[in-house]
Design goal:
Elements (H helix, E strand, L loop, with lengths): L5 H4 L3 H12 L3 H13 L4 H24 L6 H9 L1 H33 L6 H17 L2 H25 L17 H11 L9 H4 L9 H27 L1 H4 L5 H7 L11 H31 L5 H16 L5 H33 L6
């Protein structure tokens, strides 16, 4: 890395879009069909996916505009320029809390799902700890190298998802998706809110735009990065309703994994496709956790630049693990997920948009 030029260390618009798509397609894709089917009770839930996705694109566009006004600057630096250093310290600290909570949610989700589908006799505490240690190793290394893992992992995940959908086509029943357009606007809006967690991730543009070759292309990167999850979520929801029906989907904890369990590959070469599916999906969740932990370290380092990155990782990891182990059951876990979502809406959506408004009104932008 030391021999590379600055341009070679920067990432392109397409690479940033892939990073956004990868961090967005995390745990939420395994659970959102259940909450969406419960809210809409019909096949029309795909409309909620589109509505929520368009809202995410709009918010992401605004966040990208904010970051593009201050190229090569961290969130703390341009928050200080816009709203003074004391407020920047508070906002950045709140962002660090949010990103740490998100990492806790993701690693606990890995522990819960892996225990249910892969490691029946292994304590969830050990599964979660093992995964966190691997994430630590990734974050301590090169930031650009970590981000480039998405270029390798995301195509594999999408191909596996395509194979799962392909082999469940024969199980699709048209009667399960009827009647069409039977949901009212209130249920569709409620469904859009429930899908919100599944789109969390595009806000990384606030922190990684400084690594882009051309930060002005951040808005295009957000659009590209969110278009992949929108299309994927729509397809998955349609197949889950078509295979299981809305009534059954509401009673499945992880509908997407249950869909993979229905796959029967001719020849009997693989009898448990869901294990292969989940194993591949771990790669995406790994990248998601690594990026969120790296963003936490990046923001803390921007405030306390004398502390080495490795030290921050070692300090944060026990706290993240402790928080991840707080939920005692699935009800507590999903309540924790909702709390993280609402906290994130305030911290990484509303506050940065307010900063953008202030920056535009005052005409504040970087001198570079």
């Amino acid at each position: 890395m030391s021999a590379q030029t600055l341009a070679e260390k920067m990432i392109s618009k397409n690479h940033m879009g892939i990073n956004i798509a990868s961090v967005t397609i995390g745990v939420g894709i395994l659970t959102f069909p259940r909450s969406l089917a419960k809210a809409t009770g019909a096949f029309d839930g795909w409309i909620s996916v589109v509505i929520s996705g368009l809202c995410a694109c709009l918010i992401g566009w605004l966040l990208a505009k904010l970051a593009a006004r201050f190229p090569r600057k961290t969130f703390f630096e341009y928050s200080s320029i816009i709203a003074s250093k004391p407020i920047a310290y508070i906002l950045t600290f709140l962002v660090c809390i949010y990103t740490m909570l998100f990492v806790s949610f993701e690693i606990r989700a890995i522990g819960n799902i892996a225990k249910q589908y892969l490691f029946y006799n292994t304590p969830v505490e050990m599964i979660t700890l093992s995964f966190l240690l691997i994430v630590q190793y990734s974050v301590v290394g090169s930031r650009i190298a970590m981000l480039r893992l998405n270029l390798l992992f995301l195509p594999v995940v999408l191909v596996v998802m395509f194979i799962v959908l392909l082999f469940t086509t024969q199980l699709f029943e048209v009667e399960n998706i009827r009647p069409f357009f039977s949901s009212d606007w209130r249920s569709l809006l409620a469904g859009s809110k429930d899908v919100g967690l599944s789109y969390s991730g595009f806000e990384i543009i606030l922190f990684y735009a400084m690594l882009m070759k051309n930060p002005q292309e951040g808005t295009r990167a957000v659009t590209l990065g969110l278009s992949i999850p929108i299309l994927l979520y729509m397809t998955i929801y349609m197949f889950i309703i078509g295979v299981f029906s809305a009534d059954v989907a509401t009673n499945l904890t992880y509908p997407t994994i249950e869909l993979a369990k229905e796959v029967e590959i001719p020849g009997g070469f693989f009898e448990r496709v869901e294990s292969i599916f989940f194993t591949i999906w771990i790669m995406t969740i790994f990248n998601t956790c690594a990026m969120w932990l790296d963003i936490t370290v990046l923001n803390l380092s921007s405030m306390f630049f004398k502390v080495h990155k490795t030290v921050w990782v070692l300090i944060l990891s026990p706290v993240i693990y402790f928080v991840a182990m707080l939920p005692q059951n699935l009800v507590d876990f999903f309540t924790f997920a909702d709390s993280v979502t609402y906290f994130g809406i305030a911290v990484v959506y509303l506050c940065p948009i307010l900063l953008l408004v202030i920056a535009v009104l005052r005409g504040v932008k970087s001198n570079e």
